[in-house]
């Protein structure tokens, strides 16, 4: 992360869904953050907080209601020519949560992985295509005999590896991983996370890692943003966030994770988040408390947080 | 403490088109009164099947219990017929299922679903059962129980639904509560609430709980004793401190090592290589041998018995045999063995500051 080059800029992103004639759900409501080249940016929050919607909007699966997403300085949303869109699609890829639902059961592994290669014209002959697929399978820890099989012949962890191979096929720079390990067993989770970390080193990938499992996110991410009801409430380097959480919601979330340590668990006190305790004299804004540590707060709260962190 | 349930050499098999799956291959454990026994393991390790066997919920005719006993109050549940089992199920032994979205009947009001068991087992009349249902909803922390009993499951959130499922399970004051991943589908903050609720209720009612989960954090939170299952067998069993601070089985090491702790930022997670064995053809010898970096020759030939580590702690690995070489557990596990608690104390401070 030495270069500090901004790969992705998200500014005031909003995604509202109409759920009836007079009601809208504000799934994402004014979210801003930057992702630097080569880092892993973790996005955590509970179900329904809008973290997946944020990821899906960034990759154009939804049209944003408002706000900008810039990838390498270029707008992601809005009208694009076919070639521009193709170029964008190649640079940004996604790994989905459910390895059972995200692979077409009627396609062989080879077809699944090579689909992107064909669309982007990265291979010209069938031999080249086969070689490339075998290569990718080996990169993600499967072997080439697997190429002619169908997804149902694989276990959950193996399927997630196929999903990763598919994302890697077009040599992207940025991968959005939407809860890539939630559906997997503990021992398999570690395999997939280690694989993702290795691939990041080898291919200089940048990740947006969306999850609700805070301990895994802490482990893999350089920076973490905590989302609550469509807004980012706190953003900081991952160590800083765990050591000095400031927003009461972050505190409650951190205090709710059970750790694999009985002594700690016996003495754990859980902090309960009470949204009504916030200062309501003005609209809260996203402010920087100390370098790279941002919290959604009002001016009054800002003072209180500053005091808290200096003590 | 007295044993309320004894499981002896339990075997469960399923006939499938592909062959016979040996899902549970000789499980032994006791459940004491008022304790929480956690069963951990990967999917397919047989933990859910074991509890289903206790409830008499193994689907017949494909599923069979060819061998083994489940002794509860002098009766062998494995051999009871359906009619007798129905009298025990829901009254003496009840179950909380994983998914609160599917384990409630969407076409029935919540109150009716709680009252069902009361009317059947306790022979209550409707008015009495309704009062008790309101009481139960109150006990599990649902506000306005009087109005809520007339609502349908879809009007409840996930966490609230799981509370309803717990209320149903508790309706007849069961002696044993089987909880099959009761919090896996829930968010962490809701999970914390449900776990607190279950511990609270256990204190009041002295129910024994069998808690199935794959989340070791949850285990550390709720369990008195822990059984680690792999490929249809218990490979290590002991008190929660035995398992977390003095684990002996390489599989337990793997499980503990594959969970990131707060201070494990730099080193790589220890992934257990490979996948669990196919229980259609269980391997000869130790089922974990193929994934075990510490495997010895004997592991591929003979199955290890349960070696005694202490009065409460047993593990099935040849490493505990007196002729076995001394091996070093992985670094992450060694950290646990000495002073894991001190390492975490600093983190706890961080959260409170």
TrEMBL record, chain A:
GO terms for molecular function: ATP binding. Residues 8-254 form the ABC transporter domain. Keywords: ATP-binding, Nucleotide-binding, Transport. SMART domains: AAA (SM00382). Belongs to the ABC transporter superfamily. This is ATP-binding cassette domain-containing protein. The lineage of its organism: Bacteria, Bacillati, Bacillota, Bacilli, Bacillales.
From TrEMBL, chain B:
It is a peripheral membrane protein. PROSITE patterns: ABC_TRANSPORTER_1, ABC_TRANSPORTER_2. The keyword Cell membrane applies. Residues 5-256 form the ABC transporter domain. One of its GO terms (molecular function) is ATP binding. InterPro entries: AAA+_ATPase (IPR003593), ABC_Ni/Peptide_Import (IPR050388), ABC_transporter-like_ATP-bd (IPR003439), ABC_transporter-like_CS (IPR017871), Oligopep_ABC_C (IPR013563), P-loop_NTPase (IPR027417). It is found in: Cell membrane. Keywords: ATP-binding, Cell membrane, Membrane, Nucleotide-binding, Transport. Pfam families: ABC_tran, oligo_HPY. The keyword Transport applies. Residues 332-353 are annotated as: Disordered. CDD domains: ABC_NikE_OppD_transporters. NCBIfam families: oligo_HPY. Belongs to the ABC transporter superfamily. This is ABC transporter ATP-binding protein. It comes from Aquibacillus rhizosphaerae.
């Amino acid at each position: 992360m030495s270069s500090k080059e901004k790969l992705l800029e998200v500014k005031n992103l909003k995604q509202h869904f109409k759920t009836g004639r007079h009601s809208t759900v504000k799934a994402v409501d004014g979210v801003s953050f930057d992702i630097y080249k080569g880092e892993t940016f973790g996005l955590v929050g509970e179900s329904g907080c809008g973290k997946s919607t944020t990821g899906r909007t960034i990759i154009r699966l939804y049209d944003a209601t408002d706000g900008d997403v810039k990838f390498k300085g270029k707008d992601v949303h809005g009208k694009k020519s076919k070639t521009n869109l193709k170029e964008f699609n190649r640079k940004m890829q996604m790994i989905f949560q459910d390895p059972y639902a995200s692979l077409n059961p009627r396609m062989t592994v080879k077809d699944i992985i090579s689909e992107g290669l064909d669309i982007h014209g990265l291979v010209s002959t069938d031999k080249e295509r086969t070689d490339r697929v075998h290569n990718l399978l080996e990169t993600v820890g499967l072997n080439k005999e697997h190429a002619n099989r169908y997804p149902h012949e694989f276990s959950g962890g193996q399927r997630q590896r196929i999903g990763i191979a598919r994302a890697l096929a077009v040599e992207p720079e940025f991968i959005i991983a939407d809860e890539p390990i939630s559906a997997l067993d503990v021992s398999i989770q570690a395999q997939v996370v280690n694989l993702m970390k290795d691939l990041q080193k080898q291919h200089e990938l940048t990740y947006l890692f969306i999850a609700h499992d805070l301990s895994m996110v802490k482990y893999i991410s350089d920076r973490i943003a905590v989302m609550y009801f469509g807004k980012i409430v706190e953003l900081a380097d991952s160590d800083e966030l765990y050591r000095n959480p400031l927003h009461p919601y972050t505190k409650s979330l951190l205090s709710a994770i059970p750790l694999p340590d009985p002594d700690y668990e016996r003495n754990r006190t859980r902090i309960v988040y009470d949204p009504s305790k916030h200062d309501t004299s003005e609209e809260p804004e996203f402010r920087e408390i100390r370098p790279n540590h941002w919290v959604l707060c009002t001016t009054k709260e800002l003072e209180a947080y500053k005091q808290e962190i200096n003590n | 403490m007295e044993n309320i349930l004894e499981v002896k050499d339990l075997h469960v098999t399923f006939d499938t088109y592909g062959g016979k799956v040996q899902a549970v291959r000789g499980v032994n454990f006791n459940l004491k009164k008022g304790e929480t026994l956690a069963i951990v393991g990967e999917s397919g390790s047989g933990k859910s099947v074991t509890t289903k066997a206790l409830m008499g919920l193994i689907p017949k005719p494909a599923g069979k219990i060819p061998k083994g006993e489940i002794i509860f109050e002098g009766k062998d549940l494995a051999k009871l017929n359906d009619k007798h089992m129905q009298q025990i199920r829901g009254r003496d032994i009840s179950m909380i299922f994983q998914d609160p979205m599917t384990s409630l009947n969407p076409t029935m009001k919540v109150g009716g679903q709680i009252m069902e068991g009361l009317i059947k087992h306790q022979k209550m009349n409707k008015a009495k059962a309704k009062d008790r249902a309101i009481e139960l909803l109150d006990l599990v922390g649902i506000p306005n129980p009087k109005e809520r009993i007339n609502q349908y499951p879809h009007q409840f959130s996930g966490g609230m639904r799981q509370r309803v499922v717990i209320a149903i399970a508790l309706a007849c004051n069961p002696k044993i509560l089987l909880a099959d991943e009761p919090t896996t589908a829930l968010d962490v903050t809701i999970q914390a609430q449900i776990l607190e609720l279950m511990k609270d209720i256990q204190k009041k009612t002295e129910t024994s709980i069998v808690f199935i989960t794959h989340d070791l954090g949850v285990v550390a939170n709720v369990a008195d004793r822990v059984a680690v299952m792999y490929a249809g067998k218990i490979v290590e069993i002991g008190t929660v401190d035995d398992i977390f601070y003095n684990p002996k089985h390489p599989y337990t090491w793997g499980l503990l090592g594959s969970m990131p702790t707060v201070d494990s930022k730099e080193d790589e997670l220890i992934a257990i290589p490979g996948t669990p064995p196919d229980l259609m053809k269980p391997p000869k010898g130790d089922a974990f041998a193929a994934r075990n970096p510490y495997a010895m020759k004997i592991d591929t030939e003979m199955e290890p018995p349960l070696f005694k580590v202490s009065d409460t702690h047993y593990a099935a690995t040849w490493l505990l045999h007196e002729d076995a070489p001394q091996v070093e557990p992985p670094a992450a596990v060694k950290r646990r063995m000495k002073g894991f608690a001190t390492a975490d104390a600093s983190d706890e401070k961080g959260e409170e500051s």
